[in-house]
Amino acid sequence: MSEISQLSELVSSWERIKNSGLPVFIYGMGDGCLKLMREFDKYGIAVSGIFASDEFVRGHSFQGHLVHKLSEVEKTLGCGNFIIAMAFAAGYDSLIRQIDEIAQRNILIVPDTDVIGVGAFTKKTLSDNIESIEKVYSLLADDKSRQVYVNVLKYKITGDISFLRECCTPPDEAYANIIRPAEDEIYVDLGAYNGDTIRELLSHTGGRYEKIYALEPDKRNFRKLSEYAESMKNIELYNAAAWLREDTLNFNAAGGRQGKLSSKGVETAALSVDGILQGGRATYIKYDVEGAERGALEGTEKTIEKYAPKLCVALYHRAEDIFELPVRICEMCPKYKLYVRHYPYYPAWETNLFAVCE
Fold first, then answer.
1. What's residue 120's pLDDT?
2. Band of the pLDDT at 1, cuts 50, 70, 90?
3. How many C-beta atoms surround the C-beta of residue 89 within 10 A?
4. Helix (H/G/I), strand (E/B), else coil: 57
5. Which of 59, 90, 111 corresponds to the end of one domain?
């Protein structure tokens, strides 16, 4: 039995929670909590309550539940006597350490739900797409990528963050061993936010580059990006979403990083990379476009076929991204070598695919 097919034997996060016989408390409020509640309804899982970190509890209530302090729940029920279902993302060191400490004394499950939409990667997702998932695994270029790929899938099924802890690497590792940025990069940043990944790239090139194109649809983020790039040369900024063609789309401007294309929202320009470059060259393209990665890739097809630029593609916004996007990229350019890395983050956000020609 292959390493991928063995994943079907894992117990899902939903089964673990439902069959535990223990009270279930959701850790966190907001959209993540609502997504968990929707999934719990599907599986017939009752919610015993909601809690937040002690410093954030101020007499709040959410969806009819009084928001408790974690310390209160631990004192009342005793550590290990209830299930914690985490409903938010932890992406910086101090919060990750805090989550790890909670997991050491409690039963913590972080169910996987789509960042965009209302779905989740489940055992049915695995069984329905096993051939594509096996194909991606076979295409990966190094042992680390295969470990990351399997561990992320294990996490997605079980909600066990120990699988993510085992396969994390810092962004510097990908820059040093996979991207290997040069001083003459022509960089296309899709989902440029406030310029953070431009800064990151330039920190590895001594601030040198040939040309930068940056797309950011959110107006507030775009203002910050413009302020950052004000004194830079050879940089073109677009207050637009990355898409498969030039268009006008609705954009839900949530602020921060979470804005996304939506059926409702502010009308926003959308552009394709092929349309912007007009046959010109790119050497490195980053796609972090909140679930629109497939469309943005289709809008880069001519550039990929002609120049095979290095690619960094987010694999975590939709359940299908982790198997559909790598397969599509290899259809566009079969000579790519594929790598997968997961940066420190709970849940499996910041899982990225890298495609390079060596």
1. 86
2. low
3. 17
4. coil
5. 111
Cα–Cα separations (whole angstroms), residue 290 to 217, 248, 294, 319: 11, 17, 10, 13
Residue 58 — very low, low, confident or very high, per pLDDT cuts 50/70/90?
Answer: low
Spacing of C-alpha 215 from chain mean position = 18
**Residue 299, class by beta-carbon neighbours within 10 Å (0-12 exposed, 13-18 middle, 19+ buried)?**
buried
The tokens of 158 are what? 């079980």
Note the pLDDT tens digit of each residue in 316-348. Answer: 999 999 999 999 999 999 999 999 999 999 999
Region for residue 255 given its phi and psi (left: phi exceeds 0; alpha: psi -120 to 50; beta: otherwise): left
pLDDT of 76 strictly over 80 = yes
pTM: 0.93
Which amino acid is located at 314 in the chain? A
* Domain membership flag for residue 333: no
Residue 270 in tokens = 């959308």
Q: Are residues 84 and 202 in the same domain?
A: no
Tokens of 241: 């979403």
User: Which tokens belong to 182?
Assistant: 């040069």
CATH number of the domain bearing residue 223: 3.40.50.150
DSSP lists the bridge partners of residue 169 as: none
Q: What is the CATH number of the domain that holds 76?
A: 3.40.50.720
Q: What percent of the chain has pLDDT over 90?
A: 84
Residue 47 inside a domain? The answer is yes
Q: What is the rounded CA–CA span in Å between residue 252 and residue 169?
A: 32
Residues whose CB is less than 8 angstroms from the CB of residue 172 and which lie 6 or more positions away in sequence, other chains included? none
Q: Which domain holds residue 85?
A: 13-111
pLDDT of 291 > 70? The answer is yes
Q: How many domains does the chain contain in total?
A: 2
- State whether 189 and 102 are in the same domain: no
